[in-house]
TrEMBL record, chains A, B, C, D:
It is found in: Cytoplasm. GO terms for cellular component: 6-phosphofructokinase complex. The gene is pfkA. This is ATP-dependent 6-phosphofructokinase. The record marks G104 as: Important for substrate specificity. Residues 2-298 form the Phosphofructokinase domain. The active site is at D127 (proton acceptor). Catalyzes the phosphorylation of D-fructose 6-phosphate to fructose 1,6-bisphosphate by ATP, the first committing step of glycolysis. GO terms for molecular function: 6-phosphofructokinase activity; AMP binding; ATP binding; diphosphate-fructose-6-phosphate 1-phosphotransferase activity; fructose-6-phosphate binding; identical protein binding; metal ion binding; monosaccharide binding. HAMAP family: Phosphofructokinase_III. Keywords: ATP-binding, Cytoplasm, Glycolysis, Kinase, Magnesium, Metal-binding, Nucleotide-binding, Transferase. Its EC number is 2.7.1.11. Pathway: Carbohydrate degradation; glycolysis; D-glyceraldehyde 3-phosphate and glycerone phosphate from D-glucose: step 3/4.
Amino acid sequence: MRIGVLTSGGDCPGLNAVIRSVVHRAVVDHGDEVIGFHDGWKGLLECDYRKLDLDAVSGILARGGTILGSSRVQPAHLRGGVERARGHVADLGLDAIIPIGGEGTLKAARLLSDAGLPIVGVPKTIDNDIASTDVTFGFDTAVTVATEALDRLKTTAESHQRVLIVEVMGRHTGWIALHSGMAAGAHAIVVPERPFDVEELADVVGKRFEAGKKFAIVVVSEGAKPREGTMDFTAGATDVYGHERFTGVANQLSVELEERLGKEARPVILGHVQRGGTPTAYDRVLATRFGWHAVEAVHNGRFGMMTALRGTDIHLVPLAQAVEHLKTVPVERYTEAECVL
Amino acid sequence: MRIGVLTSGGDCPGLNAVIRSVVHRAVVDHGDEVIGFHDGWKGLLECDYRKLDLDAVSGILARGGTILGSSRVQPAHLRGGVERARGHVADLGLDAIIPIGGEGTLKAARLLSDAGLPIVGVPKTIDNDIASTDVTFGFDTAVTVATEALDRLKTTAESHQRVLIVEVMGRHTGWIALHSGMAAGAHAIVVPERPFDVEELADVVGKRFEAGKKFAIVVVSEGAKPREGTMDFTAGATDVYGHERFTGVANQLSVELEERLGKEARPVILGHVQRGGTPTAYDRVLATRFGWHAVEAVHNGRFGMMTALRGTDIHLVPLAQAVEHLKTVPVERYTEAECVL
Amino acid sequence: MRIGVLTSGGDCPGLNAVIRSVVHRAVVDHGDEVIGFHDGWKGLLECDYRKLDLDAVSGILARGGTILGSSRVQPAHLRGGVERARGHVADLGLDAIIPIGGEGTLKAARLLSDAGLPIVGVPKTIDNDIASTDVTFGFDTAVTVATEALDRLKTTAESHQRVLIVEVMGRHTGWIALHSGMAAGAHAIVVPERPFDVEELADVVGKRFEAGKKFAIVVVSEGAKPREGTMDFTAGATDVYGHERFTGVANQLSVELEERLGKEARPVILGHVQRGGTPTAYDRVLATRFGWHAVEAVHNGRFGMMTALRGTDIHLVPLAQAVEHLKTVPVERYTEAECVL
Amino acid sequence: MRIGVLTSGGDCPGLNAVIRSVVHRAVVDHGDEVIGFHDGWKGLLECDYRKLDLDAVSGILARGGTILGSSRVQPAHLRGGVERARGHVADLGLDAIIPIGGEGTLKAARLLSDAGLPIVGVPKTIDNDIASTDVTFGFDTAVTVATEALDRLKTTAESHQRVLIVEVMGRHTGWIALHSGMAAGAHAIVVPERPFDVEELADVVGKRFEAGKKFAIVVVSEGAKPREGTMDFTAGATDVYGHERFTGVANQLSVELEERLGKEARPVILGHVQRGGTPTAYDRVLATRFGWHAVEAVHNGRFGMMTALRGTDIHLVPLAQAVEHLKTVPVERYTEAECVL
């Protein structure tokens, strides 16, 4: 068989592990040929690719990023390109395409699949917000990086007798905040699923100081927002140049808390370190298994499906179902986390 | 309510996280009192304990080991002590005991539970061999430590043009070998579930050298054994003093492979580093959730049960069922791993 | 003898290692008594302290922060307090005081020493800008944390085809930027010692893209400033509330570079993670040696001195000399670093 | 100019950083051409090499091992090959050779230099035993890896109430044991420079238990030996096959201490993990500087010299002097370390 693989969307630790696994399983065990499209869907539309043999994927398992490059998917662009994609698939004699990507990518994958192209998707997001899989690779690495930062910040907050507002990734869901906050023993966790009330938050932190503690760590998702009417809030603060570019919630919260508590409060924005670099062992195993099962799905003709973790097993779920809704933090998970405050 | 907690068996990253979570949930949210027995079941039998309030568990979330101490359980000893335990539970006015431990501990827990004591167990093993839970805390840390070591060993094996036989923990099951081997891209993985044939192994490694590669990494569980009749083998090699104390498989395999391959082969025994030190973020979250749900089970009167992870949820399973059989590496997981050799 | 120890100024990995070493050397080897003042000089002025025996320092070697607490020194306040300090030293029967701190602390130490108090200083700064010692503990940890972040950011910058402007600590000197930039292979390093010209910087980065590279990493010290007249620049940007609080250089540079290069440029501000958490092995050894030699200096009556590393040996240098001038990055070190761009 | 570079001897984190730095400095700043010989001196003798341009060294800064391969130097072999080497240098039009290696390599370098070949050496050893430089790259990484392992082992030793005898690298000198033991707070440190008396050692550890402590960590260099007449000792224990291959000191010490103390004592042999994998930031900076200055030495015609760190500066020292004697742990450094036991 001849299989094309591509990576699309934001960086995510484990992408290379999937690529390597696809090539190993396909080439070594099935005698397939694998090509990799450059820069995501763009590579498919422009027929820009290279051959991927064992040498091409040697030594990439633990490397962050993607050897194939990536680009943000533009669904409209892709919609107009279905026929072009079909043409390239035919010209290249491809039996299957394995796109590895997040919500946008999987929606695009479904579009092409519905148009009859032979697609098996592999889900990818550090945010862990894809509903049809227990977890996605990249998430454990992001949580690990955030937790290590929080571990470090605790001693420095304590020495400086400060409140630190630590902003982690998560535009629509609070999974990274929830897990890293729980793992590091944060004193408050603020997620997009539950708009916050700054008075309540100040109250929680204030009680901690009243109890004699000398510092507090608040973990907040970048997408967190105040409950309506409780605080002036600019989603995406404006920088000194008038550009709306900096995520604003930690900055704004630190000002508000400082005023209410009379304690120094400082924002720390972890940023891109959460999505780069070598994946954790957990993510490497998950990514490798996803790659393996994607190749199996191709050989079993299970097109229009996506790999998913359920418990300890890898299942296939329809692409249609995969992107139906976002997996948000349920209230009971949030309640568990509150107990460790 | 008044709850007693104890840790029993070998060291495992995450024990302190469970203790902390039990105390937080019980004290803060339910207004309970918690005591901790020293050195496992011994503390219960000898009524050796201390009070655990919030201060007592401050700062322990990320610390390895157990602040309560531990000891290996001796079930026979415990059997004779059921009445003594019952007496202490009554004297101390305990409404529940939460033992945190491995197979032996959980068997003991069942014994006491069958005798009518109010027990909720929390499973613990770095080996991940408890069948009724998807995974146990401590396992991810062990795999992470082993993977980091393997990452380092790869470059040195390559520079020295050697075969390295890396022995990881796992007396009865190969989970640590499987996951760390897969995560690090080992070239062969040897587990207790599949007795090895040294000729076959030499063949796999030899083919790698024939293909022009300059080194190989073999990961082997400490409990791995050769297929009967294929190799002289001493389970637990004898040291120079005549003590049978060193795990022998990596040592013996390195000699056999060196003779067959004509390449330098060296054993590396990772040993106790796999079970000590700060837990990974994954293990801290799982341990914290286990502690939280154990307290809930106590308050719901669900005695004779054990916390377990199923998918992304924490369930309760009967202690009786929990220790029925060992969770071994199924053949399909091993097959997945082969593809990355 | 009776020795008082205190920590003053910002958090710095290794403070606890010094405290522990002082106590071990003094108590175990000399039979001294040690007390620790709380919250820096404040503790001395307010006679707020506790006894430090072996138990008090058990387990703190690898812990970030300081068990004694710290506060920023206010020299004026201290100047008025010399007599008060002298009184407390007499009342407590102290034979020596060992203050551990940065430039401000050492200046205060000199003040008290000149007034006749028995002082041996231990220098501390993650910035590495104290001239009379080859290096200070805390610096290696800060560089290590920054380097690990840069390692991660490289893959994500590559995947996203971006310029990342990474701001590291260093208000007056560029040591952390120089070492972390060199260690991680940054493509440009901007330090306070050499005001930058944004056109030149855009040129360097632009050439990299012209050569076919897909990303660039610029490391910039928080205290870096543009060459006069080359760029509008606000030292300390204003936030949305009108507070002048965010370090601005990475934010402003990213805007300027994006406009000039036509490539996405994003700021990443590493912040407080650089000064918290467990110290590296290097810093633990240096801190332990500083503590040991401070006690020796006390026993040898070498007051008014400070411990310093010269090559591989610990020397004593006069406090007067220690704080005479800042150790800045010399031009030849900068030249070395340029070669790795 | 045309420069040849080679790496020789055991693996050492930082080799690739030197190679990269040599290429960057030579190619970018001087317009030189660089070739790399394969597998150490063997590559020079057999004229086996490849061109090293900027692409060839892209991405290797943080990678362990050596992209050029290595082999153990056989001085006798090399002695017979001087004329062959001279011939290849002439044929290839080389203006200089930069060998990167340990004691054996530098002796060989001196041999060739004395024979008139244009050599600038770069010292390399994780053992830190080269006298003419304050420190060698690779050492900090080895100490860091050993310290991280010791950190982990402390909690597990405590939980199991055991003595752990941890064997680290160092055949002739105890630098790694000294620094990692000091960094991790080991309770005894045993180095080759001071033959140990097992009774004394048992006494030190025994007193710790008498003082109520529940565990002890002893760090021992692989080359440590007992004081004559104090203990039966087999340097290099024999394995079950009659092969003399396992370093024996930790194994033998654990048996002896267990018998004397009546406490479980277990050996842990860290082995090759200490010399592989990504170098620390410290080692990357030092290696990069060594490479830079080696190229400068070439351009300044300073042949027969070797790069060396003195304080914070890189100096050149004669190869003749460089290998005169081993840098051993001086007694005063050992005394410093004792205070932290």
